[in-house]
């Protein structure tokens, strides 16, 4: 299996961006060239390291690591089928139930698929896999939009509240977990993760202070911004609506070089004051633009060097496409990656495509992927995972490996992760 790209060098002098980009693009090419071999190795690795866990023993796998035995012995399940196991872990049972490695925390599902939030057990090393997928995005993007290393990204990133299970494990959304990790907070220098928002503003638990300070910092650095975004389109629209409501306060801060007293978090104030300097000319410019009757193209008016908007606009987020087009003056809307609480999956290798044409290339080192064909009845999709419990034997045999999916066929994605 090709070696994953190394972590980046700290020194800007030693930083050969083109060399790093080429290595990452080569990595993508290598792991996707023969996905079946990579997937076999991934499954064997997952089964080898977890050979003695209770769940695999329960189903009689008995140390087998080959794909045929795995498919024959292991049922395809839904979350509810292992909920009792997850509850045991949540309540403090540290035995090897689903995974041989210690469960480091629970990731809570976003709820975007409907229903209640679920608890996904995860392990420390999953942060490495998530970081790897993030590292693939900008080398791909730079093939289509050159010079992105010459400026900054204006991204509105936020943490959400977290809880503790009775057994003492943290339960929080996957992005909150990532932003609070050393992988994000102590990331080495990389022009592609050079954001207008200081870490302290992203990690501020008060949503008002976080949004206000992130917007203020981005306005102070408006000429340096080359790309803008948030995770979901809804989050980016929320930032623009916040700007509509509070631009007079923001202009006052920029003109005077003093920070609004409503921002009380000491670490946020300290981080913002390193960026905020008195700039009456910039304040007058922002005031003139925001004071106009129309906010059409406000993104390109305030941040004139912006090349694209980086947000998820697929699925339920597609409703925001017209609003984004209005505010951004028709800038490309880019969906870069496909990920979930359960597993990170893949990247968009054609990022400047229309939102309606977005597709993702799965990176086969992320987990073991299988595909369950979706049957159509009278033109309506019948969801094969709506069965009460595990799939029956016939449905089990329908599972298709990553290398064998057919163009034009619709599938449900079935995933086996390193974390169990």
Automatic annotation (TrEMBL):
Gene Ontology MF term list: indole-3-acetic acid amido synthetase activity
UniProt keyword list: Ligase
Gene Ontology CC annotation, any one: cytoplasm
Alphabetized InterPro entries for the sequence: GH3, GH3_M
Any Pfam family matching the protein: GH3_M
Family designation: Belongs to the IAA-amido conjugating enzyme family.
Record protein name field: GH3 middle domain-containing protein
């Amino acid at each position: 299996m090709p070696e994953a790209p190394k972590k980046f060098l700290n020194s800007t002098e030693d930083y050969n961006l083109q060399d790093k980009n080429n290595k990452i693009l080569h990595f993508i090419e290598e792991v996707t060239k023969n996905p079946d071999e990579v997937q076999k190795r991934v499954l064997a690795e997952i089964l080898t390291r977890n050979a003695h866990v209770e769940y695999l023993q329960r189903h009689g796998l008995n140390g087998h690591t080959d794909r045929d035995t795995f498919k024959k012995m292991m049922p395809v399940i839904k979350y509810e089928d292992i909920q009792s196991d997850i509850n045991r872990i949540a309540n403090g049972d540290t035995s090897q139930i689903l995974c041989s490695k210690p469960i480091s925390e629970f990731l809570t599902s976003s709820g975007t698929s409907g229903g209640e939030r679920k608890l996904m057990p995860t392990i420390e090393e999953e942060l490495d896999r998530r970081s790897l997928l993030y590292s693939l995005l900008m080398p791909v993007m730079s093939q289509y939009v050159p010079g992105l290393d010459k400026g900054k990204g204006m991204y509105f990133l936020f943490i959400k509240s977290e809880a503790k299970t009775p057994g003492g494990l943290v339960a929080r959304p996957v992005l909150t977990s990532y932003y609070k990790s050393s992988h994000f907070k102590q990331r080495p220098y990389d022009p592609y993760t050079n954001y207008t928002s200081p870490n302290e503003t992203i990690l501020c638990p008060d949503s008002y202070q976080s949004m206000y300070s992130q917007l203020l910092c981005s306005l102070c650095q408006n000429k340096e911004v080359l790309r803008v975004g948030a995770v979901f389109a809804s989050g980016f629209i929320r930032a623009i609506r916040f700007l509509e409501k509070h631009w007079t306060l923001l202009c006052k801060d920029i003109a005077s070089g003093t920070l609004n007293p409503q921002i009380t978090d000491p670490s946020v104030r300290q981080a913002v004051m390193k960026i905020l300097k008195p700039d009456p000319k910039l304040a007058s410019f922002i005031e003139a633009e925001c004071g106009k009757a129309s906010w059409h193209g406000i993104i390109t008016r305030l941040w004139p060097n912006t090349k694209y908007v980086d947000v998820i606009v697929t699925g339920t987020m597609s409703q925001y496409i017209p609003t984004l087009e209005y505010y951004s003056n028709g800038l490309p809307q880019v969906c870069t990656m496909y990920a979930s609480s359960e597993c990170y999956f893949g990247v968009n290798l054609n990022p400047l495509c229309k939102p309606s044409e977005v597709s993702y290339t799965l990176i086969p080192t992320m987990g073991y992927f299988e595909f369950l064909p979706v049957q159509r009845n009278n033109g309506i999709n019948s969801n094969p995972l709506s069965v009460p419990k595990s799939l029956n034997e016939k449905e089990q045999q329908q599972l298709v490996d990553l290398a064998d999916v057919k163009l034009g066929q619709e599938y449900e994605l079935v995933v086996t992760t390193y974390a169990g």
